[in-house]
Amino acid sequence: MFGIHTEFNSNKRKESIINDVLTREQKSHGVLNVHRINEKNVGDYYCAPHLYFDELKDKKLDISDFRSIFKKKTDNWISQISNNDLILGGGGLLNIKHFKMQMELFEKLASNGKKIVIWGAGHNEINLDDYHKNQKYWIDVNKFGLVGTRDFSFPGEWIPCVSCLNPVFNKTHTEEYEVGLLFNAKSIKDDKLIKKLEKYPQSSNTTNLEEMINFIGKCETLVTNSYHAMYWAILMEKKVVSIPATSKFFDFKYKTPITSFEDFENEIKNATKYTGVLEECREINLKFADKTFDYLNL
What we know:
The protein has 298 residues and is an alpha/beta fold. The protein has two domains: 150 residues; 111 residues, Rossmann fold, CATH 3.40.50. The chain contains nine helices and eleven strands. It is globular and about 55 Å long.
């Protein structure tokens, strides 16, 4: 039937895929970088180590292929996971329902001795009340061979997003805007919000990396509900005011005022410009790469 799964119940289909992986012999034919490959989300796309190291070039797999209704795609996912050592990340792969079953599978595989590295992934809890009440990962990251998360106070070594290695951050910019707003993919569709704040220069994370960086570069202070816009603005020594869409905004090493689109104007005066963060994040990732490649025999 056009290669579509005959099991239409999503949970049963996913459980079958998990059981298939767990019953297979796990091999180490190579290394795969598993993350959310979404070219329409600039942060998701550029947060992956395979983009920055020749050792990992083109060695990638979309974590969301696990959920596909097309059997050819899930068969490939099962085969690739079973036959390779894995690097998970970056991005918000932890504490989010979309990746819960995959991360639990990887935890089981790691517990059974499969070589798996977490590199720059972080928590992404949508319900902020749950995050504040119970700040821990849904999986035990200590079961993995090597762990670096972008969450500063959580278990594992602190490894900020590897996108800091992108050469786009080597460019210089001239500031034109005292305050600029950069919306995430959901907020940019909110016509009432966009209209209400139209006096401010605006952009979104639905453009592309170069446009995002150029817009951030023009701002003295950036107000954003995009995690990577927050991160990149800090790297670029901009003042940042954050509007949290999920828990991921709360645990970066360098803090920003946390507020809402209704109240952000009152927080602009509290925004801080940090220096030297780009160099620090690059050095941390390069050192973690050495450890990772040594562990995976690359």
